[in-house]
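Try it yourself: sequence plus flavin mononucleotide, in.
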Amino acid sequence: MNTAHHSTAPAREAITHLEIEPSVLYFGTPVVLLTTENQDGSFNLAPISSAWALGQTVVIGLGLEGQTAYNLDSRPDLVINLPAPAQWPAVERLAPLTGRDPVPAGKPEGCRFEPDKFAAAGMTGVPSRLVRPPRVAGCPIQLEARAERVQPDARGDFLIVEALVRKVHADSRVVVPGTDHIDPAAWSPLIYNFRHYFGLGPELGHSYRTQTPRDRETPVAGPALAETAPN
Ligand SMILES: Cc1cc2nc3c(=O)[nH]c(=O)nc-3n(C[C@H](O)[C@H](O)[C@H](O)COP(=O)(O)O)c2cc1C
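Structure, out:
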């Protein structure tokens, strides 16, 4: 018997890469809801997916014309609110809205001014501890932060914000009891994947540096908030 025919390696399939020109490159990043302070002391709320953490700094990419960019340029306090997957309809209700009046010419067709985005989304603000903009009540993780650096990107199309996180609020259901650790099996971000919303699939493995290793024999529970999180 020729064992070469019984290799355990997966069959090599012919994979073709196409050279394409997608209109967007949103390859799947968590959605955050930014609360910022308007000039008149009211608060704006905007969904953003260009956000990622480096230590205690969150780097955020903003369109130059939006109210959020306008606010952070002059009033640096913000809250970075992380919604759960079940909250995607509220996020999408915010999608065609801007806090900027009049609506900037560069905004997509159908975009309209909305001074009270909390009401429009069906969301509630709760006071923050260290910053003026409120937290979004239903979001399981809320990061109070201050924009330390706000500068245009290399092409002058966007604003790159480096926000230093000053206080973290976490729903007790996503915290490992008695610790400061987020339980990765209980928490799932809401992922924006080429303009479609997803939650996380089951765990595949973990980093050698994790402080919350799981017993491989224990079935992985779905994210605790997937079905229950309010908007
Ligand atoms: C899921 C989602 C992700 C978005 N990501 C970004 C982003 O990363 N940066 C950005 O400037 N706008 C992003 N937008 C668009 C803004 O939410 C939109 O321009 C909104 O009008 C901004 O509100 P504002 O003008 O009140 O700041 C996103 C919208 C949605 C629905």
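One thing you can check immediately is this: Residues 227-231 have pLDDT under 50 and may be disordered.
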